[in-house]
Design a protein that fits this description.
heterodimer; A: 506 residues; alpha/beta; Rossmann fold; six-stranded mixed sheet; 18 helices; 25% strand; disordered C terminus; B: 324 residues; mainly alpha; 2 strands
């Protein structure tokens, strides 16, 4: 970074407090013209919170943001746009049913003096911009019909066209092939040459080294370091990202494991995951670790019958089962706790009572009639056992906090007498206190002989409570480590698809 | 201990009365009845009230079916056409000498199948209910017209025609049928597994699926019930009109949606109930009946009903925002 380059944005002493969590603590962050600034850290480190302050989605609890040296308040996304700050992943001004050219001009569609839209002018202008960036897309195509990669390129082109000064990339290569990634990097370099400041967030460490010139590391909401990329290496960066003691929060009593309860053999789905094999025992917490879009989630959903797979077998209690819908999985004693509770786990308009019993009605009914007393008992018992904080079992789930909502989802499966629990990011969006309570419940479950399959991209948590962890990268099983072999660095390497020679020799 | 007991009782009471909204809408109905009674003595007479119940029963039954569908997160625009279809089928069979019970059963099955067909297309084809039932509105009306050459079928057995004016203990038989069906509807929605599942898919289909609920069966049954309710209404209207009328039931879809929404059922699904719809239907009927007696221009009454529907929904949203 040369010093002559002008500073665009400076964030000073940014703090962000969420209920029960200090998401950011005194973070300083600057971006200069023509700089590609990498932002790295584990999930939950505070990267997206920081970025959301720039896009106007969140406000800092304290701290200041300066643009061109002037103190500003980015109160909402419209203000961010006025300051020419854009994020590729969440461009709110995209109309997917309109053409590429229309999207470029959205809000300022050019018209002639009769008020008629100047279509030819629009597509000519758009074509020019696309050509300048070397993007081979027809400006008259409907956006929705483009591939994921093309869409992304078009969105970047739009921000270029709108002369954005700062463009934020959040995991831009997650959906791209390596060829597309190369093209993307060319475009990013072109933006850099034009003096655009670029913030680049990625889990793929090699990419950060390929494209960025400066990198900032966040960990637990604090800035650990901000250095030119040439002054560090992959090893050094990963050390900065993790280097932390796993807290007592994760100290749960593990069980001795002998009896197999779930076995997955050669599970495959074209282009998503391939030849997945593992066994889970009673009393075991089995972790599936993968970064964004690794395929770990797809594997879990396939086992549960919520998504299809091409071949492979699932055994429960050593008996082969054919699970092609969640209702069959439930009959076989499985329960699934999805990452996005509000979208997939809860019927939020309904009561706590109804949600807790959601999967169990056939079991508490006779000839189709629900036994009201059992239903109420189930709900009351679970509310007490899991310490769900609610004014009563008739409360609408919508009005509960995130942690208590997660407990309701858990309660649903407890009532159902599940023996295999599949957890997807069980503590995403939950505050620290509730997390600990959830871990205690997991402890209780394995004590009773249940098995838990836990999918997480949050490594400290997974390492803290899992008995074994298998790492998934691009749908492939990179390795399975037992508790005594756990090593954060090793996990991150496996999950990024990096396999160091020295490690192999050892 | 005592506190817990009280709390349980309160919870139980809340379950019985359903959501607050059903109470609210009930109060609105009571206020209306009291007001009309005070304003005009002819309103609260036994004859007027029973007549009101009888004339409302047909749309009342249709609205019950609509309520199932709307709670599940869908909509059924075909109800009026299914009413006509089952009406002409029943009439045609009766005129051709087939015993009344068989004619009725066949007609009910036809209505249920019409609903099931739409449910299958909606679920398997992932086509929005609005579109499928809009097509149903057109198709079933067309079939009813074809079957009759667009002419009313007359000459039904006397016993059947008399049903329309039959009374038990002074109460019109048609109103009794309606009230029984309201109770059946309440029992299904509140006390059966199927009922719980309707709310579940209406509130969050994906969560319902991942909870192991058979959502396919639930959708099929919901639309089958919708069709069945319309078919029952079709039988009632056949008796009332003393004939199978291919034109009958026009505009019922909007009246039924109005009654359902007024009764507190959310158009986005997951919230609502049969009592609410019952009261909603009665409110609309009371306003037009009471208004007529008082000599208010019927067009003005339509405007009032329209405003009331909007108010009911706005009130509902305000209440939700306050987090009650």
């Amino acid at each position: 970074m040369t010093l002559e380059n002008k500073e665009i944005i400076r964030m000073e002493k940014i703090c962000k407090q969420f209920p029960g969590v200090q998401a950011l603590e005194n973070v300083d962050f600057s971006i200069y013209e023509g700089q590609i600034h990498g932002l790295v850290g584990e999930n939950g480190a505070g990267k997206s919170t920081l970025i959301k302050m720039l896009t106007g989605a969140l406000q800092p609890t304290s701290g200041d943001i300066f643009i061109d040296g002037n103190k500003v308040v980015i109160s909402d996304p419209i203000v961010a746009r006025k300051f020419k700050i854009g994020a590729v992943y969440q461009d709110l001004t995209v109309a997917k049913d309109l053409t590429v050219a229309e999207n470029f001009f959205l809000g300022q569609i050019p018209r002639n003096r009769f008020g008629i839209v100047r279509w030819r002018y629009m597509s000519k202008k758009a074509a020019e911009v696309l050509k300048e960036l070397n993007i081979r897309v027809d400006p008259n195509m409907i956006l929705e019909k483009l591939t994921a990669a093309q869409k992304e390129m078009v969105l970047i082109a739009k921000q270029y066209f709108k002369k954005y000064r700062v463009v934020i990339f959040d995991e831009p290569t997650a959906l791209l092939t390596s060829k597309d990634t190369d093209e993307l990097f060319q475009i990013i370099r072109k933006l850099k040459k034009e003096g655009v400041g670029i913030i680049y967030i990625s889990h793929r460490i090699e990419e950060v080294f390929e494209i960025c010139d400066t990198v900032t590391v966040l960990r637990d909401g604090k800035k650990i370091d901000s250095i030119p990329i040439s002054e560090t290496d992959i090893d050094g960066l990963i050390s900065k990202m993790v280097g932390r003691d796993v807290s007592d929060m994760y100290s749960i009593t593990h069980q001795s494991l002998t009896e197999e309860i779930l076995r997955v053999e050669n599970l495959s789905k074209a282009k998503v995951f391939e030849n997945i094999n593992f066994t889970v025992n009673r009393g075991e917490i089995f972790g599936l670790f993968g970064l964004v879009n690794s395929g770990a989630t797809n594997i879990a959903r396939a086992i549960y019958g919520a998504a299809r797979f091409d071949r492979g077998d699932v055994y429960i209690d050593s008996k082969k089962v054919k699970i092609n819908s969640p209702s069959i999985a439930v009959e076989n004693g499985m329960g699934f706790l999805p990452e996005d509770k509000k979208i997939e786990g809860l019927a939020i308009k309904l009561s706590v009572r109804h949600n807790i019993n959601l999967g169990s009605y056939p079991k508490i009914s006779r000839m189709g009639f629900v036994k009201g007393k059992l239903e109420v008992n189930n709900a009351v018992e679970q509310v007490e056992a899991l310490n769900i904080r609610t004014p009563g079992i008739e409360q609408t789930v919508m009005n509960l906090s995130g942690g208590n909502q997660q407990k309701v989802v858990l309660a649903k499966w407890l009532v159902n007498k599940c023996k295999i629990f599949i957890f997807e990011e069980p503590t995403a969006g939950i505050d620290v206190g509730a997390k600990e309570e959830i871990y205690k419940i997991l402890e209780l479950l394995i004590k009773k002989g249940s098995a838990i399959v836990m999918i997480s991209s949050y490594l400290p948590e997974l390492m803290g409570i899992a008995d074994r962890i298998t790492v998934i990268y691009e749908g492939r099983q990179m390795g399975t480590l037992s508790r005594n072999e756990f090593n954060e660095k090793r996990f991150l390497q496996l999950a990024s698809g990096i396999n160091f020679k020295e490690d192999k020799v050892r | 201990m005592i506190k817990d007991k009280v709390k349980q009782m309160v919870d139980g009471f809340k379950r019985f009365t359903g959501r607050f909204h059903e109470m609210n809408i009930f109060l609105v109905l009571v206020v209306l009845i009291v007001a009309f009674s005070l304003l005009n003595r002819r309103f609260i007479t036994f004859g007027n009230i029973t007549n009101l119940l009888r004339s409302t029963s047909i749309i009342g039954v249709v609205s019950l079916g609509m309520t199932f569908v709307i709670i599940s997160g869908g909509i059924d625009l075909s109800v009026g056409s299914v009413v006509a279809l089952s009406s002409v089928i029943a009439a045609k069979l009766m005129v051709s000498g087939i015993p009344i019970p068989i004619a009725i059963i066949v007609s009910l099955i036809a209505g249920a199948l019409a609903g099931l067909l739409m449910g299958v297309i909606i679920y398997e084809g992932k086509v929005p209910p609005f579109i499928v039932t809009l097509a149903g509105l057109s198709v079933f009306r067309g079939i009813a017209m074809l079957l009759t050459g667009a002419k009313k079928i007359i000459g039904l057995p006397d016993i059947f025609e008399n049903f329309a004016v039959q009374r038990f203990l002074g109460i019109p038989a048609m109103a009794i049928v309606w009230v029984i069906l309201v109770i059946v509807g309440v029992v299904i929605t509140r006390y059966t597994v199927f009922g719980r599942n309707i709310y579940a898919i209406g509130s969050n289909q994906e969560a319902a699926r991942l909870s192991g609920i058979n959502i396919r069966a639930t959708y099929y049954r919901v639309y089958t019930l919708g069709g069945l309710a319309s078919a029952i209404a079709g039988i009632l209207i056949t008796a009332r009109l003393a004939g199978g009328a291919p034109y009958s039931g026009g505009g019922y879809e909007l009246e039924a949606i109005a009654a359902t929404v007024l009764g507190g059922t959310s158009l986005t699904g997951g919230i609502g109930g049969m009592f609410g719809t019952f009261f909603g239907t009665l409110i609309i009927a009371t306003i037009s009946n009471g208004g007529n007696i008082m000599g208010i221009n019927p067009f003005v009454l339509e405007i009032i009903i329209g405003i009331l529907i909007v108010l009911a929904v706005v009130f509902d949203h305000l209440q939700k925002r306050r987090g009650i």
